[in-house]
Structure formats: structure tokens, C-alpha cells
Specification:
377 residues; alpha/beta; Single alpha-helices involved in coiled-coils or other helix-helix interfaces; Rossmann fold; 3 domains; 7-stranded parallel β-sheet; two-stranded antiparallel ribbon; 9 strands; 12% strand; disordered N terminus; binds guanosine-5'-triphosphate; binds magnesium ion
């Protein structure tokens, strides 16, 4: 404890530097500085933040299989980490969990920002959790580094689901590359399955490529549309509709209901002309409103039919096998690309060769060969 300030002018209070000598006894001088009081037993020194002890691979595996939510969260943090040591341990954990994975219904949900996905998932997830399902929600938003993200909003919008003991909600880390976010989400799905979640919902904002990435990691894909938002905006012309097994015209309530019913009729016509996303399954369209609850149960009923059909025709199992092989090739490509561009001789020549190609001094093919040669290929 520092020495107390000197007493002044007979006053029992300490005299700060800025009080002129002799002033404190002047009745016009009204400021006194009181000595601080320290409550007994309290310390001004903050205790050091407690570091959680590191978990061994066995701790992770045991905790996830025992459905310990704390260990589940940490296991997902481990698979999300880019640190090489964490990645090595993550692969050990995943290898041990693998026999316990694959039993969930994997459902992707997409739609333009504000289409009502999170609000729907809250109502839908709660319904499933109350029926005894264990529901995991993984929210991907690779755009969030730019837009500030909707992750906080999601947590607020899924407030009741967040607190349900049979639900687990995990936003993806913001700002990663799409490839990185995709790997992390795929691995997070496996960890959730090993922890006994039988429904895994992957929410993604429909802003372009990420719909395709999510389609490649789920069994069923739901696209949310809102009446009056414009075809272009909703990716109808970009073929997002062709990825869907189920289209939901959302927010079908109040004044918006007639417009939604008109959109429903229109979309039913459009679907006749489109290629379907899943062999043996006719893509369907329906309306829903999380606000009134209308149509929410119907979405699960349709997904139930989808999965029954998938079991009968073998399309779900086939899709999973294809997804696993495609994922392996994606990992190889990522590895080769990182190895090539990370190599010192490539980095040394890359800017110069790019400039030459940009200026027209070198044809793109000649540039590619030159850079490949620099990388020893
Ligand atoms: N009328 C009506 N409004 C809804 C409904 N569902 C969501 N909303 C409103 O729509 C807005 C956006 O809802 P969100 O659930 O955050 O939409 P989102 O698609 O998850 O949005 P992002 O995650 O930002 O892409 C909120 O203001 C909701 O209150 C609904 O069924 N009816
Ligand atoms: Mg959302």
C-alpha cells in the first residue's frame, strides 16, 4: 500500500499537491480529499485469469461421447483452430469419434439476409427438442468479417433454443476463408453427431458460393424465399433453387400472406421446369411463418418424407459417399495449393510473373509454366 499523503494545516485529511499551503483551513476552500477505504480482506490485485487445463485426446473423446456440453464446445474450438498442434490433436479426436458419427439428419438452410432463417430455426428447433430430438445448430457466415456479421443477432434470435438442454448452437468463427469455414463446419458436424445430436441444422446466409459449400455437406437442403424480394436477389437465376430439396416461402403471415400464396403458386409452376437436386425426390415448396407457427411442423413432415425416400432409393447414402470422396479431393487440393504458394521460390517470383501477365508481356499459360517451374513442378 502506498504511503498516505501528508496531513496538512492540522486537517485530518491528506493534502493533495494541488492544494496551496495554508488553504485547507480557509473556510472558502471546500475541497477535501478523503482517504480511500479498503474493505477488509479485499485485494486491489486481480487474481490471474484461471487457465483451463489442456485436455488430452482421451479427455476430448470421453467428454464428447458422454455428451458433456463443455467438452463438446472445446472439441469444436479445437477443430476450428488453425494452429498445427491443435490440428494434429483434432485429427486424432476426429479419428476416435468417427465410428460414432453419421447418425444425424443433416439439414442445410439458406436464404438471403433477413429471410427469417434464424427465427425459423428457433421455432423449428424448439419443436424438435420438445419431441425428444437433440438439435445442433451450426451457423456459417463467411461474410461476417465484412458486414459485422449476424452472429450476435442469431444468439439473441435463438434465445429460447440456446437455453434448451437438448439444443446446442454454435456460430462459425467469423472472417475465415470459405474453404476454412467449410472444413471447420464439416468437422463440427461430426463432433456434434458423436455427442448424440440426431438433427444437425447448418444455417448459412445466401450470398453466393456458400450455398454450394453447404449443399456439399448436408443430406437435405432448404432454401428460404420471401415474397417480393426479387428473383435476382434471391439467387433464383443463379440456380440456388436447383440445389434445394425444399423451398420455404417464409414470413407467410399478416398482410404478407396473400403475396406468399401467390409466390407459392408461381414457384410450383417454376419447379416443373427445373432439375431436381436429389434423385428420386420431387423438390417441393411450401409456406411457413415462425411468427404464427404455421407451416413449421409441415417442414419437418416434408423432411421426414425426404429421408424416407432417401432410405428407400439409397440416395442419402450415395450422396454421403460422394460427399466424402469429394471432400477428400478438396483437402488434397487445399494442401497442394498451400504447399505451392507457400514455397519460398514461388513467393519470390509470384509478383513479377503476375505483373508480366497483367501487362501482356507474358501469356497466362507461359506465366503459369514459369511459376510452376519456380515451384519445382
Ligand atoms: N412477419 C414475420 N417476420 C419474421 C418472421 N421470421 C422472422 N421475421 C423477422 O425478420 C427479420 C429477420 O429475421 P432473421 O431470423 O434474423 O433472419 P435471417 O434470415 O436469420 O437473417 P440473417 O442471419 O441476417 O441472414 C427479423 O426482424 C424477424 O423478426 C415471420 O415468420 N414473420
Ligand atoms: Mg440468421
Amino acid at each position: 500500500m502506498p504511503d498516505p499523503l501528508p496531513l496538512h494545516d492540522g486537517c485530518p485529511q491528506p493534502r493533495p499537491d494541488w492544494v496551496p499551503e495554508g488553504c485547507a483551513s480557509d473556510p472558502a476552500f471546500a475541497t477535501w480529499v478523503m482517504q480511500g477505504v479498503r474493505p477488509s480482506g479485499a485485494s486491489t490485485v486481480r487474481p490471474p485469469a484461471r487457465r483451463r487445463p489442456a485436455l488430452s485426446t482421451e479427455d476430448y473423446v470421453r467428454g464428447v461421447l458422454a455428451r458433456d456440453p463443455g467438452v463438446l464446445g472445446r472439441a469444436i474450438t479445437l477443430v476450428e483452430s488453425n494452429a498445427p498442434a491443435h490440428q494434429r490433436q483434432a485429427q486424432e479426436v476426429l479419428a476416435a469419434l468417427l465410428p460414432h458419427t453419421g447418425r444425424a439428419r443433416r439439414v442445410g438452410l439458406t436464404g438471403i439476409p433477413g429471410a427469417g432463417k434464424s427465427t425459423f430455426i428457433e421455432a423449428f428447433g424448439l419443436r424438435l427438442a420438445e419431441q425428444g430430438h437433440r438439435v445442433a445448430v451450426l451457423a456459417i457466415d463467411p461474410s461476417s468479417a465484412v458486414t459485422g456479421g449476424s452472429i450476435l443477432g442469431d444468439k439473441v434470435r435463438m434465445e429460447k433454443l440456446c437455453r434448451h438442454p437438448h439444443a446446442f448452437i454454435r456460430p462459425s468463427p467469423s472472417g475465415g476463408s470459405l474453404g476454412g469455414v467449410t472444413r471447420k463446419t464439416r468437422e463440427a458436424i461430426l463432433v456434434c453427431e458423436a455427442a448424440g445430436y440426431d438433427v444437425v441444422l447448418v444455417e448459412t446466409v445466401g450470398v453466393g458460393q456458400n450455398e454450394v459449400a453447404v449443399r456439399a455437406m448436408v443430406d437435405a437442403f432448404v432454401v428460404f424465399l420471401i415474397a417480393g424480394a426479387g428473383d435476382e436477389l434471391q439467387g433464383i437465376k443463379k440456380g440456388v433453387i436447383e440445389l434445394a430439396d425444399l423451398l420455404v416461402i417464409n414470413k407467410a403471415d399478416g398482410d404478407n400472406l396473400p403475396r406468399c400464396l401467390a409466390a407459392l403458386a408461381e414457384m410450383k409452376r417454376v419447379l416443373h421446369y427445373l432439375r431436381h437436386a436429389t434423385e428420386g425426390w420431387q423438390t417441393t415448396v411450401q409456406t411457413a411463418s415462425a411468427r404464427t407457427g404455421d407451416g413449421v411442423a409441415d417442414v419437418w413432415a416434408t423432411l421426414g418424407q425426404f429421408f424416407t425416400t432417401g432410405e428407400r432409393t439409397g440416395s442419402t447414402a450415395r450422396r454421403r459417399r460422394e460427399q466424402a470422396v469429394a471432400w477428400m479431393h478438396a483437402l488434397i487440393e487445399e494442401h497442394l495449393r498451400a504447399g505451392f504458394y507457400g514455397a519460398e521460390p514461388v513467393q519470390a517470383r509470384q509478383a513479377e510473373i503476375e505483373n508480366a501477365v497483367a501487362n501482356g508481356a507474358l501469356a497466362p499459360m507461359a506465366g503459369a509454366l514459369a511459376l510452376l517451374a519456380a515451384g519445382g513442378r
